[in-house]
């Protein structure tokens, strides 16, 4: 077992000057040091590149060119990645300081290929809410039920996976604009199980104007209908609480 394998982290960005610096700092200040950090910028015309260049000595690759959206940028980043594990953090999200260290430690010891940590959300007041550790049965993911109208999202900002797994399914699909992670998880589920681990990894920043607000377009991409009441999330909560209680007893 290699105790300190290389981890590739990709940040896709476009006109992200408002939040990007904090995102970068949360990556380069990780307690785990064997990190390859790649930033892919879609030709921003604000102060994004100025921020990126400020930290260029801590960034492995910087690519500034037109792209076809977030998933195209992520694919470009991972195509350069040499890490044993892959992770992407969006330009407004954050990482806990020990996120990568704790994730790699568990994956190396348990030989996990794909994990998700606790779900954390940051609102406009910068307060961080811990929504807990959710569990995702493989059949839920395989059948496309890990969506807002049933089991709920898998929190992408808290997911890390083996680069071999990523490459074995052909990588992320750039035809998506909002649901590329949903599709990637479905294909991962054909190969292995998602393991829920009780550690802090990422923080999703909830704000106005972000892509994830367009829920109608999201459901169009995954070919499902929106709903008024997500009853499945109640099942997810009960199921997850039961599993966590059993593990902690």
The CATH H-level homologous superfamily: Spore Coat Polysaccharide Biosynthesis Protein SpsA, Chain A
Strand line-up of the largest beta sheet: 3-2-1-4-9-6-10
Topology-level CATH name: Spore Coat Polysaccharide Biosynthesis Protein SpsA, Chain A
Helix content: 25-40%
- How many domain units? 1
Number of helices: 9
Q: How do the SSEs run, as a string of H and E?
A: EHEHEHEEHEEEHEHHEEHH
Summarize model confidence as the mean pLDDT: 93
What is the level-2 CATH architecture name?
A: Alpha-Beta Complex
Shape: globular
What are the main properties of this structure?
single chain, 249 residues, seven-stranded mixed β-sheet, alpha/beta, Spore Coat Polysaccharide Biosynthesis Protein SpsA, Chain A, four-stranded mixed β-sheet
Describe this structure in words.
- The chain has a single domain (7-248), classed as Alpha-Beta Complex (Spore Coat Polysaccharide Biosynthesis Protein SpsA, Chain A), CATH 3.90.550.10.
- It is 34% helix and 18% strand.
- The chain has helices spanning 20-28, 48-54, 70-80, 99-110, 138-142, 163-168, 180-188, 215-221, 231-248, and strands at 7-13, 35-41, 61-64, 85-88, 94-95, 114-116, 119-122, 128-132, 159-162, 195-196, 202-205.
- The strands form two sheets. A seven-stranded mixed beta sheet has the order 3-2-1-4-9-6-10, with helices on both faces.
- β2 (35-41), α2 (48-54) and β3 (61-64) form a beta-alpha-beta unit.
- The protein starts with 6 loop residues before the first strand and ends with a helix.
